[in-house]
Amino acid sequence: MKKYYLILAMTSTFSYATPQYIDLKEDTSLNGQLDPSYTLSSSELLRMQGDFILKSDSEVSKGQYQHNDNVIEFTSTNGNTKKHYLGKRVIDGLYKGTWYSNALESGDFELALQSNTGLHGQSCDDVKIKDPSSQSGIHAIELTVDGNPTTANVYCNMDIDQGGWTLVNTREKNGRESHARTQELTDPNVQKNHYIDAATWQALKTNATQIMVTDGNNDNYVVFDFTQLDTANCQVLVDDLVNTPVFHAEPGCTYKGSDYTYLSNPSNGIYFTTVSIYNLDFKPSNRNGNYGTLSSGKMYYAPLNIQIYIR
Fold it and tell me: CA-based angle 52:56:62, to the nearest 5?
C-alpha cells in the first residue's frame, strides 16, 4: 500500500488544520463504478482553504477543492506520466469521479476523508448510536478485513425498526446466475443483484446480532436474530453470501411439506428472493407488512427484489 502525505500549497503565514486521513481507491476500467480489483492508497491530509499538494516518493499531485467543496480536481505526476482526477462530492467526506492520463489510460476513483478522532463506527448501528440524526444513505465505517484496518463505504438503512442496518446483499427474481460479487454495496436501487465479498461479510458479521430482509419498502421487513440462525439444522447463516440459501431450518431439509423456514431457495426464479416461514419453531424476532406480524403464523413472500441487511 502506498503512503501519501497531503501538504497544503499555501504560505507559512497560515495555520494547518488538524490532520485527517485519505483513502484513494482507483481502477483502470472507466465504467462509472469501481471494479473489485481496485488499488488502495492511504494518506495523511493537512488542509487549509482549497489548494493542496499530494506527495509520495515517486508522485506529486496538485489540486483544489472547488465550488464549496462539492468538486475535487487534482493532477499527479510520476515520471513522464500525468494523471488528471475530477470528482464530485457524494456525501460529506466522499468524492467519486474519473481519471485519465497522457498515456491514454483512464478509470474510476473514490477519495474518502477519514477522521483520526475515531468518529467512524464499525457498522451502521455504530453510526446511528454516535449520531441519532444520521439518515439513510452512504456512510463510512472502519473495519478490519483479513487483519488489515480499512475504511469501507456502506449503505445504511436508518429507518426500519429504529435503523442502524448495514446493506450486505441484494437479490432479484431469476437472479441466481447473474448474482455478482462487489467489495462495496452502496446503492440498492442500482446494485440490485450483488453481494459483498466474503472477507468484508465476515468482518461485518462479527459486529452484528441480527439480519433483516426488506423488499425496498420500509413498511415491509422481517428480522431474525443470529442466535436463532445458529440453531438452523439445514444451513446456519452462510459464511459467503454467494451461497443459497442464506439460512434454512426444516426437519427433513427437503424444501417439501411446508415445515421449513428459509431465506432464498436454491431453485431459481422467484425462489431466489423468497422468505418462507412455515416452521413455527423457527420464527423471526420482528416482522411487518407483507412479511406479517409477530402474531402471524405461516407465510411466504417472494417479491421481485430484496435487500438484506445486518445490525
Answer: 25
Number of residues assigned to the chain = 311
108 within 8 A of 32, measured Cβ to Cβ: yes
CB 213 within 8 A of CB 308: yes
Return the amino acid letter for 206: T
Tell me the Cα Rg of the chain. Answer: 22
DSSP lists the bridge partners of residue 308 as: 169, 213
The CB density around residue 197, as the number of other CB atoms within 10 Å, is 17
DSSP for residue 162: G
Q: Kindly report, residue by residue over 19-70, the tens digit of the pLDDT.
A: 566 778 899 999 988 776 778 776 666 676 778 776 665 676 888 899 988 9
User: CA-CA distances (angstroms) from residue 177 to 89, 180, 195?
Assistant: 34, 9, 13
Cβ pair 170, 157 in contact under 8 A: no
**Cα separations (Å) of 17 from 10, 53, 118, 158?**
12, 14, 17, 31
Query: For residue 241, which of 290, 306, 190 has the smallest C-alpha distance?
Result: 306
Enter the pTM of the model.
0.67
Q: How many helices (H) and strands (E) does the chain have?
A: 3, 22
The residue with cell 421449513 is 260
Model pLDDT for residues 205-257, shown as the tens digit of each residue: 988 999 999 999 999 999 999 999 999 999 999 999 999 999 999 999 999 98
Coarse DSSP helix, strand, coil percentages of the chain, rounded to the nearest 5 percent: 10, 40, 50
Instruction: Spell out the residues 6+ positions from residue 110 whose beta carbon is closer than 8 angstroms to its own.
Output: 23, 24, 25, 26, 34, 87, 94, 95, 96, 153
